[in-house]
Design brief:
- The protein has 6 helices and 10 strands; from the N terminus they run βαββαβββαβββααβα.
- By secondary structure, it is of the alpha+beta class.
- It has 2 domains: 115 residues, Pseudouridine synthase I, catalytic domain, N-terminal subdomain (Alpha-Beta Plaits, 2-Layer Sandwich); 133 residues, Pseudouridine synthase I, catalytic domain, C-terminal subdomain (Alpha-Beta Plaits, 2-Layer Sandwich).
- A hairpin with a 2-residue loop joins strand 8 and strand 9.
- Keywords: Isomerase, tRNA processing.
Length: 268
């Protein structure tokens, strides 16, 4: 049987979402907790990679097991399965560090894949311009005058299906650089300037590259037309990836409604 794990985390202390050699990750911590709880190793597959220091309000793993969350297949029937999974969430959260929280675990069809079946992913990048100790770990302090109107003109240029080679860091293993951006907009939310971008997929460093380069538009270091030329150049040396990771959040991973039907049937 296949299960999805929905979780959230603060990425400050981790090298990223997926497991890595010689560095701690979100995946490593969750697999460690599962090993203790299940008394056997469970290998996780992640839906969306996040880099070191990046946070997530929502992200997913999936894994396969014929015995999870108990050792008797007779007990893996509704509604008992719902109770078993709820208990599992409680115990795993007790084992996990304070900066990682499992929201829920639910059974899906055996063919469901948390990475390949995701229809879109949405990121937010937060900027604050007046000193505020309560947001310094989750947003980028940038106390310079910004022309948000021009930044939104630049943001609108990336909507649609385009080649985003210019906003992908080198040493990536993707087959192509085409992404379909569905939303791209800057807006003020309370005292923070938030960049919202939603797409079918993202390249390594893509959101930080977009944010850093659009900040150059906002401070009038480059024009909107020059930003457009950077897109067309397919040259990542022209983009600015220098913004810090702690302002970036993965906020939503969306799936086709029928994919998660077993979960919704059990709860609605």
């Amino acid at each position: 049987m296949r299960f999805f794990i929905e979780l959230s985390y603060m990425g400050t202390a981790y090298s990223g979402f997926q497991i890595q050699r010689n560095a701690n990750s979100i995946q490593a911590e969750v697999e460690k907790a599962l090993l203790i709880y299940c008394k056997k190793a469970i290998v996780l597959t992640g839906s969306s990679r996040t880099d070191a220091g990046v946070h997530a309000i929502q992200n997913f793993f999936h894994f396969d097991s014929d015995e999870f969350p108990c050792n008797s297949t007779e007990n893996l029937q509704q509604p008992n399965l719902i109770t078993q999974l709820s208990n599992c969430v409680y115990h795993l959260n007790a084992m996990l560090p304070r900066d990682i929280a499992i929201i829920r675990i639910f059974k899906v069809s055996d063919e469901a894949h948390c990475r390949f079946d995701a229809s879109s992913r949405e990121y937010h990048y937060g900027i604050y311009q007046r000193k505020n100790p309560f947001v310094e770990r989750t947003a980028y302090y940038y106390p310079y005058r910004l022309d948000v109107e021009k930044m939104n003109k630049a943001a609108a240029l990336i909507v649609g299906e385009k080649d985003f080679t210019s906003f992908s860091k080198k040493n990536t293993q993707v087959r192509h650089f085409q992404c379909t951006v569905k939303e791209s907009e800057w807006s003020w939310q309370n005292d923070k300037l938030i960049y919202t971008v939603k797409a079918n997929r993202f390249l390594r460093g893509m959101v930080k590259g977009l944010v850093g380069t659009m900040l150059r538009v906002g401070t009038q270091k480059i024009s909107v037309k020059e930003f457009e030329k950077i897109i067309e150049s397919r040259d990542c040396k022209q983009a600015d990836f220098s913004v810090p990771s702690h302002g970036l959040f993965l906020v939503k991973v969306e799936y086709p409604p029928l994919l998660l039907l077993p979960y919704h049937d059990a709860h609605d």
